[in-house]
Design brief:
Blueprint (H helix, E strand, L loop, with lengths): L2 H13 L4 E9 L2 E8 L4 H16 L5 E10 L2 E9 L20
Antiparallel strand pairs: 1-2, 2-4, 3-4
Length: 104
Amino acid sequence: MDVNDIWEKFISLLHDEPGMIQAEWKKSAGIPFLYLKTIKTDRNEVEHMIKKCAVRAMRGKRLNAETVFVRSAHEQWVYRHRFYVPLEKMFCCGNLCSDCIRFR
């Protein structure tokens, strides 16, 4: 699984959303930023659209997404957005850890 494939699918899903003019992502200092140009003016609508497309892009994968609002001007929205693997144990190592997967 390559995260770049997830990003490509995510951006293509955003392009297909109604009201979306332009969507792209860029890395700056190793942090991925999402640049959106849309006719929507409500921040909740834009964030709902991002969340919906992220869930569809991650379907079938063990990933999480985090989106943080940065700024907006006119029709441009900027978010810090990342896909990441959850930090939890996924197997038993046999050391009788307190957070062992067997205790779930």
